[in-house]
Amino acid sequence: MARHVTDFNGILLFRRDYAERDYLVKFLTQEFGKKMFLVRGAKKRGFKMTADILPFTVGRYVGDIADEGLSYIRTARETRQFQAIGTDIFKNAYATYIMSLVDTAFPDSQQLPDWYHRVYRALELIDEGLNPAIVTNIVEIQLMPAFGVAPQLQGCAICGRTDLPFDYSESYGGLLCQQHWAADPRRLHLSQRTIYYLRQFSVIDLDRIHTIQVKPTTEHALRQLMDEIYASQIGVHPKSKRFLDQMQTWAPKLMADPTDDD
Ligand SMILES: [Zn+2]
């Protein structure tokens, strides 16, 4: 089994207990795709890299990279944490979901330099305070092809027209123009605003986003649309998504003014 010692850039996807003193840490690396690392002695007091393998850390490390199986981290060169994500339970939940989706979408060791950059940017935007629900929608839409679902969003899936109102059809795998709405009695009846964002988000460059304002009703419709496509066409529902769903149900209570008696 080939191994070599080299520098790499990594986004920590998750870490989990391994042995009594060790952690398994999964990184999305810029150079080698996703890799699982065994970090020996990481739970011992005085361990030097404690801060470098916290959740929501990105940085530059030196590792012993294996083509297959476990790799090892030798040292951390320069790391930083997404502070706001680390301390805000909502940002935390969205960021965790994004990382679990990316982990599910690709096999380990497949080179993903483009996705390394996109995940980095998505985390940066959430950390900076952009609406994490919207950043998550963008990642969900752009990940669909990796899950084998590439919706036709350029024009009508039947005739290609782009000048009429659209709706979304799961059976046709994309947009239908108004003339072809009858072709799918189970079309999703989306608003034109929701369709607009769906199309925009599928091609938007995360590097070019600095602000996004989406009405709450549209945000809700996009969430439902993503849930529908992920449930019925992709069949992926990570544990982190279940937590996010639960959070939505208690979020209004948490955010209510505590002085407000009702
Ligand atoms: Zn058509």
UniProtKB/TrEMBL annotation:
GO biological process: DNA recombination; double-strand break repair
Keywords noted in UniProt: DNA damage, DNA recombination, DNA repair
InterPro entries: ARFGAP/RecO, DNA_rep/recomb_RecO_N, NA-bd_OB-fold, RecO, RecO_C
Gene Ontology cellular-component terms listed: bacterial nucleoid
Domain DNA replication/recombination mediator RecO N-terminal: start-end pairs: 7-78
Pfam entry (one): RecO_C
NCBIfam families recorded: reco
Family affiliation: Belongs to the RecO family.
Physiological role: Involved in DNA repair and RecF pathway recombination.
Protein name: DNA repair protein RecO
The species this protein was found in: Levilactobacillus spicheri
